[in-house]
Every structure is written in C-alpha cells, then in structure tokens.
Design brief:
Layout lengths: L1 H28 L10 H6 L1 E2 L1 H5 L2 H4 L4 H8 L7 E2 H10 L6 H12 L7 E2 H12 L5 H15 L6 E2 L1 H8 L5 H4 L5
Antiparallel strand pairs: 1-2, 3-4
Helix pairs in contact: 1-6, 5-7, 8-9
Length: 181
C-alpha cells in the first residue's frame, strides 16, 4: 500500500509540474491578460487571442495552426482559454493515445465542420499543406486519388471510420502529430 501511495504522489507531483509549466507557457503568450495565479473560473474564461497562439514557435511554421486553434477552442473561433490550451498540448503530447490523436486530426481536417472529410476539405488541406505550390489540377488529381483509395462506401466523402482506417496506416502519423513545449 505504501508504494502505491508513493506512486500516486509521484504522478500527482509530475502532473502539477506539467500543469505549472504549461501555465507559464500560456502566460508568456499574453502576460498582460493571463494572471500569474489563475482561479478555476479564470482557467476557462481568460482567453488568449488566436493570433498570439499562432505565433508560438511550436506552431508558427505549422500550416494548420489556424485549424488547430479553431479545433481546440470551445467556441470554434480559435481564441484559447487555459483549459483549451492544456487540452491541445495534451493531445499533441507524445503520450496521448492514438485514438485521441486521430479524433483531433479528423476535426482539424474537417474544414467545413460537417462531420465528414469531403472533396472541398481535401482541397483545403492540400492548399494549406502545399501553400499553393501545386496547380489546381494537381490538387484535384490528389483529391481524386485519396477518394478513390479511402472512400470505401463510395459516397464522395470520408467518414471518421474511413479516415481512421487510412491515417492508422501512415507509419509516421504518431511521430509527427505532436508538439513539445
């Protein structure tokens, strides 16, 4: 029993250290806005604007930084509370379960937020990833190929299960879907 309690203490201490480190990072984004000591209410109500979060070194070069902020903000606008920020960093941590990462990847790629990844979502993803380095025809060809291979039921859009089936075959998904602070 003593070792069990000791283990709980170590876990609790590590969790507290992590939360404090994340709070410090969150506060650095807007020290004029984020209090040094946050109450539980402030953790869900004080919001750092999306443009400040997008400028974080960890996100600055990520072409999906805007969608990441929108996916984790409770109102979908991209401004993040501390709770939202902590959720995002938890999902992008190396320890996050694969199914949680897949869920949020789907949410990020579902640009029109209709619960499916359709052709327009794929085209938006391609435009975001390639930063217009490919022609519209090349985007169409890639979207056609993805649909041909992944749209199992042939309805012209990817359900979460179809997306999950494809993404889990990507060998580097887990290693690339993370952010370290």
């Amino acid at each position: 029993m003593t070792s069990f309690l000791k283990g709980l203490h170590v876990f609790h201490t590590q969790r507290d250290i992590t939360v404090r480190r994340v709070h410090k990072r969150f506060r650095e984004l807007r020290p004029d806005l984020v209090p040094r000591q946050m109450t539980e209410g402030e953790a869900s109500t004080v919001r750092v604007p999306r443009d400040c979060i997008e400028k974080m070194p960890e996100l600055r070069e990520n072409p999906f930084r805007r969608r990441i902020c929108e996916a984790f903000s409770r109102d979908g606008q991209g401004d993040l509370s501390f709770e939202d920020f902590l959720d995002a960093l938890s999902v992008f941590s190396e320890q996050a379960p694969r199914d949680i990462k897949v869920f949020y990847a789907f949410k990020i790629y579902d640009f029109d937020e209709d619960g499916f990844i359709g052709r327009n979502d794929l085209l938006a993803c391609l435009t975001t990833m390639t930063r217009n380095e490919l022609s519209p025809e090349e985007h169409q060809q890639i979207a056609d190929k993805v649909m041909e291979e992944a749209d199992v039921d042939g309805d012209g859009k990817l359900s979460f299960l179809e997306f999950e089936h494809v993404i889990l075959r990507a060998p580097d998904f887990l290693s690339t879907f993370h952010i370290r602070i």
